[in-house]
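Worked Example 4.2. Consider the chain below.
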Amino acid sequence: MAQASDGEEASELCAAARLEPDVVFSDLRMPKLDGLCVLRVIQEEKLTSVPVIVVSAFGDSSKMIEAMRLGAYDYITSRSTWMR
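Applying the procedure from the previous section yields the following structure tokens:
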């Protein structure tokens, strides 16, 4: 398991190939690169083939559609009961 403090670090962790996660959770709003940018980098550079789940505290349907279009496995709001 690894944790990144911002989107740029998350992309670097994936690119370093030191990790073999079962799933990637990416917050939509992060410093430097947002979750959609991280997802785009992961997909374009084929950094991992594991499911990427985008998490957000905001139920913005346009962001959800964009995340799914970019290849996210799922998009969940952090207000979901499983996060409590």
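The radius of gyration is 12 Å. The chain has three helices and three strands. Compare this with Example 4.1 before moving on.
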